[in-house]
Specification:
The protein folds into two domains: 161 residues, Rossmann fold (3-Layer(aba) Sandwich), CATH 3.40.50.1000; 89 residues, Threonyl-tRNA Synthetase, Chain A, domain 2 (2-Layer Sandwich). Helix content is 39%, strand content 23%. It contains ten helices and 14 strands. The chain binds magnesium ion.
Length: 259
């Protein structure tokens, strides 16, 4: 087993507008040559990510719905663990957010066609995206929550031990103690207990939804993102020179040099 595991976000890192980029496939090939496993941590659902794992020939655990769930492969399928809260709990917070930004539309409210148009997903992918267990991405009228609104919402959510995150296409309500970082710590504990107590970790992300994932690993890489204005990453992350998938490739090259 490799002495390092790489965790990565999916949208804007490995894929752009829903499709895996050739440069990302090259990077995955580099990791495979070095025997370094890649685990995707995404806001996507289990159904979406199993399909992506098939396409990319990945075989390890899956961190889905922003770390609210982890799936570990077994000889017959996957064991699924709930780390976050149920979708019903999140649904209760929606009216509270609406007091600040007006009517919002969750991914479950969106017709499949509308979701395809908004996110660039195929119909099959959109149906898989709507099959959620522990999270509820949403959009607001006008597309953007202003800084002032964000402050108000954050104050309300803090009382319920939740935070608001922007994931690149949707906003997410994430438990304060949850997020992708929580999923990564769970997976690292699992591997350290089973295989190697000294196993190290790296992570690659491109949005504020990835910060807690980057905080959870030994080698955090932040891919430059043109859309990220607020809450820019801290100096503790290595920020790539390149944007998007080129940045992903650059991060992978640097991780390989760390090993
Ligand atoms: Mg992303």
């Amino acid at each position: 087993m490799s002495s390092i595991i790489v965790f990565s976000d999916y949208d804007g890192t490995i894929a752009e507008n829903g499709s895996v980029q050739p440069k990302a496939k090259e990077a995955l090939q580099l990791l495979r040559k070095c025997g370094i496993p890649l685990i995707i941590a995404s806001s996507k659902t289990f159904d979406e990510l199993t399909e992506i794992y098939r396409e990319l020939h990945l075989h390890g655990p899956i961190i889905f719905e922003n770390g609210s769930g982890v799936a570990v492969p077994t000889t017959t399928g996957y064991d699924v663990y709930q780390l976050g809260v149920s979708i019903d709990e999140i649904q209760k917070l929606i009216p509270l957010v609406e007091t600040v930004v007006g009517k919002i539309q969750t991914i479950l409210d969106m017709e499949v066609d509308r979701l395809c148009e908004y996110s660039g997903l195929t119909r099959k992918q959109a149906i898989a995206a709507k099959n959620r267990k522990f999270s509820l991405p949403f959009i607001v009228k006008g597309g953007i929550i202003t800084r002032k609104q964000n402050e108000k919402i954050s104050a309300i959510l803090a009382r319920h031990k939740f935070t608001l995150r922007w994931g690149g296409k949707f906003y997410h309500l994430v438990p304060t103690q949850g997020g992708k970082g929580n999923g990564i710590r769970w997976v690292m504990n699992f591997f350290r207990l089973q295989k190697d107590a000294l196993l190290r970790s790296a992570a690659i992300g491109n949005s504020e939804n990835d910060f807690d994932m980057l905080d959870a690993v030994d080698y955090p890489f932040f891919i430059k993102n043109k859309r990220l204005h607020a809450n820019s990453p801290t100096a503790t992350y290595t920020v790539t020179r390149e944007f998007d998938v080129e940045g992903f490739y650059e991060a992978v090259e640097k991780i390989i040099m760390c090993v």
